[in-house]
Amino acid sequence: MFQRNTSILWRELDGEAVLLSPAAGSSYNLNQVGTFIWKLLDGTHSSQDIAEAICEVYEVEYEQAFQDVERLLVELRNNNLLNESPAPHTLV
Amino acid sequence: MSQPGTPQASLIASLFIQAVREGQTVWFRVASNSMFPVMRAGDEVRIQPAKAHEIRPGEIAAFETANGLVLHRIIAHQQTQGSVRLLQMSDVELLAGWVKEQAVVGKVVCIRRKNRQVNLQHSIAKRCGMFTALIRYKLYLYNKNGIVKILLRGCSRLVILLGYWCLQCCCASPVVHD
């Protein structure tokens, strides 16, 4: 499960998100698919969930969508734009 | 990097304003040379949240305008019927303007250029700012054109340059990354 870093400010401009990291003074642009992914990073969706959601909206194969999600997550994490929420407790 | 004046640049500026208004201290890239030589286009400045009444003459305030975020020196402040307004002026132009309390976002506390940063909270930096503000305010009050105005303008420029030299000598240090 992944969650947007809560200190990151963001807004949408023509369907594309502009993110601002105030601490770093850096801004980042996401394309439409990236913005779609970004919006789903609320701590309740896994990479698989997000890839499935992409397949429902865009004409793309699941494997391709999953790779794109993973690639973006790595990039977001490298730029401290993401908090990784702990995995939910499971009963054994 | 978005170009100044584009919708994206305005959006990023509004995000910066939101961040400071929410109490975050941010690094912001300067887009103009209106505060030359103290701040140049491309420099990074640290903006700390501050209310209008917390900003003293000589300090560089960050305030919101129709054209986005502006960083100019405060040369005077005035108490008016329960609120404060600040008189701002760039270090280059002689045009001054009043800033309403609500438009004030914060103040510049540090300027970073290449590998050096200048601490504007240093007592010497504050004094340099105060002298600059004082002479700029005199210039603002002096309406007549003529030799006195030319002299005042020359003195003002000299004070800015001397202040800049003091900042570089006494208040600058190598960049320490957070």
Write structural notes for this entry.
The complex is a heterodimer of chains A (92) and B (178). Chain A is α+β, with helices and mostly antiparallel strands and 92 residues long. Chain A has a single domain, classed as Outer Surface Protein A, domain 3. In chain A, 40% of the residues lie in helices and 23% in strands. In chain A, a hairpin with a 2-residue loop joins strand 2 and strand 3 (16-21). In chain A, helix 2 (47-57) packs across helix 3. Chain A is globular. Chain B has 178 residues and is of the alpha+beta class. Chain B has one domain (7-174): Umud Fragment, subunit A (Ribbon). Chain B is built from three helices and nine strands. Chains A and B meet through strand 2 of A and helix 1 and strand 1 of B.
Q: Name the helicity range of chain B.
A: 25-40%
Strand content of chain A: 15-25%
Name the chain pair with the biggest interface and residue counts per chain: A-B, 13 and 19 residues
- What fold name goes in the CATH topology slot of chain B? Umud Fragment, subunit A
CATH class of chain A: Alpha Beta
User: What is the arithmetic mean of pLDDT of chain A?
Assistant: 89
By CATH's scheme, which homologous superfamily of chain B applies?
Umud Fragment, subunit A
